[in-house]
Design a protein that fits this description.
Layout lengths: L4 E4 L2 E4 L23 H4 L18 H6 L5
Antiparallel strand pairs: 1-2
């Protein structure tokens, strides 16, 4: 039988109660979590920059490092 749960404060907590006899042998396997997209990872900063030049994305080397515009 498979039980699902999560780790909370370093302890495995089952999502549904289970009646397991003392001494029951168990195996714990981790389940990979879907990778976050870049948009998810940077959601807290996306759209925060204001007053940037309209061509900032295309000319970032010019504005950040002084390179000639392309």
């Amino acid at each position: 039988m498979t039980y699902r749960g999560h780790v909370q404060n370093g302890v495995v907590v089952l999502d549904e109660p289970a009646q397991l006899a003392g001494g029951t042998e168990v195996r714990v396997e981790t389940v990979p979590v879907a990778a976050k997209t870049l948009a998810d990872q940077f959601a807290d900063v996306i759209g925060k920059a204001v007053d940037l030049p309209s061509d900032m994305a295309e000319q970032h080397d010019h504005y950040l490092h002084g390179a000639p515009k392309r």
